[in-house]
User: Fold these one by one.
Assistant:
Number 1:
Amino acid sequence: MSSENAIGRSIELDTKRSRLWRRKGADLLFAAAALAAMLAALIVLLALLGQLLFDGAGRLTWQFVTSFPSRFPEQAGIISAWMGTLLVMFLTALTAVPLGLGAAIYLEEYAPSNRLTDVIEINIANLAGVPSIVYGLMALGLLVYEFRLGQSFLTAGLTLAMLILPMVIIASREAIRAVPPQIREAAYALGATKWQTVKDHVLPYSMGGILTGLILALSRAVGETAPLITVGALSFIAFLPHPPIQSDPPFISFQWLFDPFTVMPIQMFNWVSRPQEAFHVNAAAAGLVLLGMTLLMNAAAIVIRNRFRKRVHW
């Protein structure tokens, strides 16, 4: 009887070892597939960056960065395009951040759990997947034709704000939801109101995730082309917008909001569509500048996330 039990235990032990080896093999296979996927993405990025450097590095001069577009490729520059990109991104952030963060706080902390809230959440998730050209067509009909804002910086900023607003809401909600409920319960136990709990505890602990989501959403907006073409971005602008600060009263001017605009992707698209090879070199150099701006924004997101993570202790 004892020998039969020993044989049974031996068979059971061999079965467990076999299952363990199969699981370890599956883990190694998954790790190898994940590593291959990461290397493939990295190789594509390096190949793209190498091609842009090979084509456009020689054109990256101070004169190229500070010159206006020209019909002569050796005299053409990107100052109006990158200035337009910065101003459009400023308006996009100014619109999308308060609206998106406010909506996320309401939906996560204040909204009751009912059918209306479910419908709103489903629509926000669906809007995050809508193609960007649809936002451009909507902005063309609503902002340009209905509200008569014209083909201006203001229209471009509001269009991109509508585009990234669902992503801002979703990222902010995920960051707020990650705060443990014990933090809120402890604040309520000490007599704090809901707003005091959100302001003093929830938002500080979730700010790292919120800022990371915001910057990544803006990084996507900085490369968008289709909605801006739809609302009337120009490919050739040889002047800068009106300055926001003037020497005469009332000293602050909003006229620049209604100036015509162009951005880096539009300028690149214009140069690539031309037959002259020298304009293609200019497009590669502009691509390097745009890629540098995007990488800087992503690096800022990583630094901000790490800095806020160090402050979280629970």
Number 2:
Amino acid sequence: MARARLWEPLAQWMFIVPAAAYLLLFFGYPIVKNIVMSFQQYTTTTFYTGAAPFVGLQNYAKILSSDLFSKALLTTVLFTAGSLVGQFVLGLGFALFFQRRFPLGRVLRSLLLLPWLLPLVVSATTWRWMLDPDTGVVNHALRGLHLSSSGIPWLTDTSQALVSVILINIWVGIPFNTTILYGGLQDIPTHLYEAAKLDGAGPLASFRHVTWPLLRPVVSVVLVLGVVYTVKVLDIILVVTGGGPANATETIATQSYELSFQQFEFGRGAAMSNVLIVISLAFALVYLRANRRARNV
């Protein structure tokens, strides 16, 4: 009996150690390495000389004082806010629409998941072809419907490019919002709608007094997760516009990629990505609070 008690805590640690080692190796080490690198002058020569002198906060001072950082920060805010509003409004609309049973409802729900199933690179490449000013199907359709005589420069005009990548990201994120909100709607008891109907409430009044209050915890989780996912979007912008034209679609994520893997300024790239990590971490903490609140409701 005493021997069994001795082995019990050891057995527990044997189950925990592999998971802890995995997390430390593949998540902890890259984060720590990235933080250390952001305080070093880490360039391509470091790989064969091993010399990466510490420069203190110099990398952070350079990126925070550059004009491109303020522009990238503003673009990140606009890209995140525009994507979040579009994804949530359309996702909620589709969730309410699919709450009703109708013929081909399951087929349409399956088709709605298509943007979620496709790799982001495939989706972005397809949209880039579709939005091509000269050969894209979108401009051909607009000309055929006599809505535009010369076509719209979706990806080559500085005022249109950001709108284009926001619309593409909205298309990609609709399935996630619809799925989570649809699941939240299924948890609302139907007898509440029946009671509201007996009290003379119409569809809008039922949504305002029944659906929205009970769906609010799920909404907060969807919005916070949407911010965390959107603020670090890289694939779509790189494939569709590459951050251009004239840095019109340059975000903090793409700027970090450009500094690290195009200019090979790994220290400044690491500093830029750490700024992005701090922003994501702030919203992750908000998500944890929202998730805890949702469980308590």
Number 3:
Amino acid sequence: MGYKNTPMSTVKPSEGKEALFSPEVKAEIDKWIAKYPEGWQQSAVMAALRIVQDENGGSLTRELMDKVAAYLDMPPIAVYEVGTFYSMYEHKAVGKHKVCVCTNVSCMINGSDKIVDHLEKKLGVKMGEATEDGKYGLKEVECLGACGGAPMFQIGNKYYENLTPELVDTILSGLE
């Protein structure tokens, strides 16, 4: 028994893959598939889930994960495992601006609890909820790897560090 240089699991290739996604989504997923050796298309699962999630307004459904599985010739359970394990995948609406607040050790020691309290009061929602207007969603995350700038949060792809309640207000007022 030893390491086998073969994909971990595949299923019989699906028919009708052309109809699963729009041409733009397929092209973007195919760029990621092309980064891996022939037969290793399942390695693009994380990128495919992100692309499909973005196309769906920021969240995944079981049906979308099933389509990703079919497109990548993977068992659906393998896609569910990825889609439900990582915190960057959402399974319900999270608002136009998803505010991911780190509450791990460095951020906690440096006052992330005050940032969370301020955000919840300002936006009128608790962690894991989105505002009624759909503009903001709050999400607690385990660690974003920016301990030197704690407390911090992420909105979209941008990190905001050394947060204070006043800085949070300035950041939120600058969003569309």
Number 4:
Amino acid sequence: MQFKTYAKTLAVALSLAVVAGCSSSGGTQEGNMDGTSGNMSGQGMTSGQGANGSQMNANQQRPSVDTIYFAFDSDEIRPEFESVLRGHAQYLMANPNVNVTLEGYADERGTREYNLGLGERRAQSVEQYLTVQGVSPSQISIVSYGEERPAVQGHTEEAYAKNRRVVFDYK
């Protein structure tokens, strides 16, 4: 009688182990680097499917805008810069041998440590946007300068706005 109870318990435990082992990890939003699957909106990815590298290189120019700006104390990408980021994503996907460093900056308000963290979070936001679009993470590196190396000297809101940025530095 006790043997049947143990056998049933063992059967249930094995079934749960098999079900747990077969469950999906949930995947990521980054998708595959070959552009064949993932949760992509189709922007930038559909144009690359079926084309060889030379066709894409001929059609892709590096975007002329290399700087995007952020709101005060924010690492959210502003909607007006999404087209710029999509252009950089398409360029990087068309040129897999090209690497970029995302330089994050903050204005002078806040402590040095806080501004270094904010600059890093801004660069990471841009990195995440690019990788979701399909750019290989191996092409991207990040550096934060915080409030160092301001684009504009001054203590006005206009100067601060120009210093809250991420700059694309292509190698």
